[in-house]
Amino acid sequence: MAFHLLYLLCFIVLALLLCSTMAQTSKNISLGSSLTAQNDDNSSWPSPSGKFAFGFRQIEKDGFLLAIWFDKIPEKTIVWSANRDSLVPQGSKVELTSGRRFVLNDAKGSQIWSANSSSTGVSYAAMLDTGNFVLANRNSTYLWESFDHPTDTMLPTQSLQQSGKLFARFTVTNYSTGRFIFSLQPDGNLMLYTTNFPQDSANFAYWSVKNTEIGFQVIFNQSGLIYLTSENGTILNTISGNPIATQDFYQRATLDYDGVLRHYVYPKSSSTSEERWPMAWSTSSFIPPNISLSIVEKVGSGGCGFNSLYRVDNTCACPKGYSFIDPNDELKGCKQDFVPQSCNAPADDFDFQKVPNTNFPLLDYEQIQGSEDSCRQSCLEDCFCAVAIFNNASKCFKKGLPFKNAMLDSSDRGTIALVKFRKHNSTSKKKDDSILIIVGSVLLSSLGILNFILPLITYVVVSRMYSRKAVAVPPNYQGMNLKYFTYEELKEATREFKEELGHGASATVFKGVLACDEGKCVAVKILDAKQVRESDLEFNAEVRAIGRTNHRNLVQLLGYCNEEQHRILVYEFMSNGTLASFLFGETRPNWYQRRQIALGIARGLLYLHEECSNQIVHCDIKPQNILLDDSFTARISDFGLAKLLRLDQTRTITGIRGTKGYVAPEWFKNLPITAKVDVYSFGILLLEIICCRKKFDEEAEDQDQIILADWAYDCYKHKKLHLLLEKNDEAIKDVKMMEKYVMIAMWCIQENPSLRPTMKKTIHMLEGTVEVPKPPDQSLTSSILFDTAH
Question: What span, in angstroms and rounded, lies between the C-alpha atoms of 57 and 672?
């Protein structure tokens, strides 16, 4: 009897434990429950621990995604979505109806999506701590689950069955279906392949695993391993071989928009955060190892789009003389910005951009043997030739447009791509006009007295017309993909310069809407007409500096007006204003956003210093000159003080440029100026980003805190960094990462320019790929800068 009582007691305790476990891993959502898309953070259902949430995320203005996301980290990373190809407006509703259906309707009540469960016996829904959203019956049997319908991401405990697929998103910020698929085929082969975009049918397999046994499922287990098994459970292949405990790290495997399947990890607390694993998503492993060597399509554009190049960091770029067809979709490819070579004209106007370690396999139309010079000459004299590939076997392969399948192989030192471009973007229009004028004059000359008068009138009118054009479109802007606007066009676009966005010492910026470009918003910068000579210098500097640049962390110059006394520049409109208003406003941006902004600014500066065709020193890096786009990506602007450096010129001497407080010491000492002056400015700006306070604060209660650079250094030296982060609990929790950022800033503002890192080294330190050494123990130079700087 005692034995039976003990047995019964054990059974009850076990049952209670099981019930407790179930209660901890699910939180039932009853019939009739609903969520409405709105501009706040209340339209979601959290998992029991709050690790995940299900609900609406605003992606664009009045555009919402019904999604699942990591909810305990600053970056609310989306791992699943229902309506990725059709965002819904504010007021849309998802509801678990009393009729036991789970549906998403837009604001007008039209059905956008529904969870097609195999049964009508749905009793409740639940957002689980695994990241799985389920519909269940009264017996807690799952009738539908999001794990069975993945979008671009797998999570620990999730599996991918035969015919299961992950579809990459379209771009970093656009969650709609993209160009790449990860799939376990019905025959058991595991593959990555491109699609016949915009259709989702398979095109080209660029990575695959084939086995003697048939692959049955891909498993992402609790230990952080991702592997392919057979039907009997035998592991056939390991996809990610870096086991990382899920109790210490959030994890996900995502097929990114660029076609790479990456295994990401994120420390759950600062105590598990190390140099290798900072408090951010870090890549644990990825496939394929080098995607630029993997995609060689007979039909299709390749990994980077037609007429594109691969950069070392696996991002896409356009060759000289080309620009992105759509800057928001780099994989769409690049277009020529110059008039193609005529087959009946000399080739003197053309030259080549030499791109090392680069190839464009397939579509060769001719092959010759010889030297690099003979390869150049052959392509130069051939009007069909757009690119020539020369390899270490002295072979030259000629290709026409469009060229594709860009490959970058740093180990292949012998292969170079020679991309043809026009030196000056001259057009045939002027010649054609001249021919028409001559023909007209000859015809008119047969008409008696008009013989003399009309040719004279024609000459005067045409001369004046070309004279006006020469003033409006200066020849030294040719070769840039810029639109010329008349003053009247811009006056109309800005409603007579009604809405001012901001102003500085020599310019005012207004918001405008281009009727000629489907109502696109622009920022119209008018240089001060009272200082025409100075305005001309700044205007020319800004157009030349930014006209040929193209990078996601630079504000794009769209066009200009140079009409009489009017000097106007037309830029992309940045909806989230300046970094200054973002950092120093009433609402403090979160720590993750600030780190991403700092990294974006650093990448933009690296492009200016080392990657664009003309090296550029910006000379005026400060929060007011950093703008934020719709997704709060940092975009460097205001190139009015920029200094161009020739490729063979690393330093120059010039008058002081820039804004007090951000100006490097060498400006005051009349020393040669290099790109390191921007590194110094970036260091001061980085401190402002870390602390969310200005470089100089006269109202600081403690005199030691007035100059931010000095105060930050003292806090670092005396191990009191927490003083920098008052009322910033989020950053205090990540104080180890914050200390690293302060150390990076200290290196950037070293008085000796040779001690400052390059922007490339700075990026590596920010990303955590290199260790940040202890900065020198020396007094800072801020006293030089701030004696009159406020």
Answer: 50
Q: CB-based contacts of 122: which residues, under 8 Å, 6+ apart?
A: 31, 96, 100, 101, 102, 135, 136, 137, 143, 144
Measured CA distances, 223 to 155, 216, 251 (Å)? 11, 20, 10
* CA nearest to 654, candidates 756, 549, 541, 746: 541
The token duo for 715 is: 């806090």
Whether omega for the bond prior to residue 288 falls within 30 degrees of 0, making it cis, is yes
Q: Residue 674 in 3-state DSSP?
A: coil
* 643 is an annotated ligand-binding site residue: no
Residue found under tokens 């989230």: 576
The one-character DSSP state at 689 is: H
Reference 76, options 44, 107, 46, 53; nearest CA is: 53
| Cα–Cα distance for residue pair 758/112, rounded to 1 Å | 50
Q: What is the per-residue pLDDT for 630?
A: 81
Q: Where are the beta strands (DSSP E) in 564-621?
A: 566-572, 615-617
The tens digit of pLDDT for each residue in 621-663 reads 999 899 998 888 899 988 765 655 433 344 444 444 445 568 8
Q: What is the pTM of this model?
A: 0.55
Helix (H) or strand (E) holding 82, with range, is none
Tokens for 25, please give them: 């891993």
Would the pLDDT of 112 be above 70? yes
Bridge partners (DSSP) of residue 68 are 54, 80
Q: How far apart are CA 255 and CA 183, in angstroms?
A: 11
Which of 534, 535, 557 has its CA nearest to residue 545? Answer: 557
Long-range pairs of 556-561 with CB within 8 A, sequence gap ≥ 24: 556/327, 557/482, 558/482, 558/483, 558/522, 559/482, 559/483, 559/484, 559/485, 560/477, 560/482, 560/484, 560/485, 561/484, 561/485, 561/486, 561/487, 561/489, 561/490
The pLDDT tens digits of the residues spanning 609-623 come to 888 767 788 888 999
> 571 φ, ψ to 5°?
-115, 165
Query: Could you tell me which of 353, 313, 314, 352 has the C-alpha nearest to residue 331?
Result: 314
| pLDDT on residue 272 | 61
Q: Cα–Cα distance between 647 and 748 in angstroms, integer?
A: 23
Number of separate helices (H) and strands (E) present in the chain: 15, 45
The yes-or-no answer on residue 256 being catalytic is: no
Give the residue among 277, 415, 313 at the shortest CA–CA distance from 359.
415
Q: Is the dihedral of CA 166, 171, 176, 180 positive or negative?
A: negative
Concatenate the DSSP letters of all residues of 367-410 into one string: EEES-HHHHHHHHHT-TT-SEEEE-TTSEEEEE-SSP---EE-T
pLDDT the model gives residue 247 = 79
Q: Which amino acid is at 640?
A: G
The one catalytic residue in 620, 629, 678, 734 is 620
Contact 623, 579 (CB under 8 A): yes
Residue 530 has pLDDT above 50, yes or no: yes
**For residue 426, which of 338, 508, 495 has the smallest C-alpha distance?**
338
